[in-house]
């Protein structure tokens, strides 16, 4: 244990955009008020780590400790921490949950208004860093988590306790991507039994939506992707039909889907982060009750365009789903229960496992589209 003092810890530092992470000794400060310091057991790589690692300018910033999916043990607690104690099993979650504000106390929202989610390189409350290099250079945080280190400091609003019966290399999946996709189907959309679902993009998030839709009893799950390998993989996640969006020339994919579904799907999930695909998704969800759910992350300033008359008379719904609409502290235990009850299947998401020393391999695998989730053991 580092005890309540600055300590030296190993971290994988992103020094420059797109360049391999460098494992080095860094100094981690003790937790301040409402913070905990945690020892990471394992972490996994989410596509947002790759997106921000590639970004030269803000919100990319360097040198930085990336990583935000992890499983850990509380090592020490700062002042004013009641809900956690040394030795607790926890997962960090990038989305704050203060449990007190109007949004956190409402069942209808997961958008904390005390700590509004923003992409910041600092700790949540005081806007400073807990990491420095041995030479005293400040290291930036990532998504309030920075899990590519043996020890890290996280605000209690960004921590959820997790049942220690969940193995570490499954627990870390609840931190971001899998929860996001499963939550989008279960919570944001509330997919109904027997319905038809279309998923644009069969990466980790899209396949997690498929898993959620499968749990909800969807009878048809149509996956859209440009990579044909994704169909075989998708079958394990309940995908029943595959549409290769490169195979139809100039014909819009929405038209292909409308023909396949006799007028549109009940639910369309956009899991790529492209405005044009959101429009395609909207165009092939059924009039009257179809829902289009935006899960993919586009560039911050990107705009969406819809015909006003379509919105007016088609009766379709467009919804956004950040972290699957889940409330980090109260909904994650419900997903964990579904996993322990063997309803939610997680094994199939973990395609690779590497040691911390090989963290750059995990980046390579995800960049090349070869992995869904690669678990990195500390
Ligand atoms: C994302 C969610 C949207 C903004 C960037 C980060 N979260 C996790 O991967
Ligand atoms: Zn993520």
From TrEMBL:
One of its GO terms (biological process) is formaldehyde catabolic process. GO terms for molecular function: S-(hydroxymethyl)glutathione dehydrogenase [NAD(P)+] activity; zinc ion binding. It holds the Pfam family ADH_N. InterPro entries: ADH-like_C, ADH-like_N, GroES-like_sf, NAD(P)-bd_dom_sf. Its cofactor is Zn(2+). Residues 35-163 form the Alcohol dehydrogenase-like N-terminal domain. Residues 204-336 form the Alcohol dehydrogenase-like C-terminal domain. Keywords: Metal-binding, NAD, Oxidoreductase, Zinc. One of its GO terms (cellular component) is cytosol. PANTHER family: ALCOHOL DEHYDROGENASE, ALCOHOL DEHYDROGENASE-LIKE 7. Belongs to the zinc-containing alcohol dehydrogenase family. Class-III subfamily. Homodimer. This is Alcohol dehydrogenase-like 7. It comes from Solanum bulbocastanum.
């Amino acid at each position: 244990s580092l005890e309540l003092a600055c300590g030296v810890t190993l971290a994988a530092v992103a020094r420059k955009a797109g360049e391999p992470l460098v494992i080095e000794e860094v100094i981690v400060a003790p937790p301040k008020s409402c913070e905990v310091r945690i020892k990471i057991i394992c972490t996994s790589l989410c596509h947002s780590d790759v997106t921000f690692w590639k970004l030269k300018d803000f919100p990319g910033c360097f040198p930085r400790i990336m990583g935000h999916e992890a499983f850990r043990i509380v090592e020490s607690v700062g002042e004013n921490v009641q809900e956690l104690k040394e030795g607790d099993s926890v997962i960090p979650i990038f989305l704050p949950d203060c449990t007190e504000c109007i949004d956190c106390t409402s069942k209808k929202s997961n958008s904390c208004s005390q700590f509004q989610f923003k992409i910041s390189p600092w700790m949540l409350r005081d806007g400073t860093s807990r990491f420095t290099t041995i030479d005293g250079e400040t290291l930036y945080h990532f998504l309030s988590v920075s899990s590519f280190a043996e020890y890290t400091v996280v605000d209690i609003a960004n921590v959820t306790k997790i049942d220690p019966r969940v193995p570490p290399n499954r627990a870390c999946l609840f931190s971001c991507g899998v929860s996001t996709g499963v939550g989008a189907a279960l919570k944001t959309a509330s997919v109904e039994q027997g319905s038809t679902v279309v998923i644009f993009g069969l990466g980790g998030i899209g396949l997690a939506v498929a898993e959620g839709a499968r749990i909800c009893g969807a009878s048809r799950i149509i996956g859209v992707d440009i990579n044909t390998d994704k169909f075989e993989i998708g079958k394990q996640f309940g995908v029943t039909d595959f549409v290769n969006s490169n195979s139809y020339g100039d014909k819009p994919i929405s038209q292909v889907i409308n023909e396949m579904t006799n007028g549109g799907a009940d639910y369309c999930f956009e899991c790529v982060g492209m405005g044009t695909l959101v429009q395609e998704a909207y165009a092939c969800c059924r009039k009257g009750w179809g829902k289009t759910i935006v899960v993919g992350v586009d560039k911050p300033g990107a705009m969406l365009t819809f015909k006003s008359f379509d919105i007016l008379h088609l009766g379709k719904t467009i919804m956004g789903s950040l972290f699957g609409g889940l409330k980090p502290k109260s909904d994650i235990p419900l997903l964990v229960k579904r996993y322990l009850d063997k309803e939610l299947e997680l094994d199939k998401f973990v395609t690779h496992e590497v040691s911390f020393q090989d963290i750059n391999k995990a980046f390579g695998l995800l960049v090349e589209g070869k992995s869904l989730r690669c678990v990195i053991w500390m």
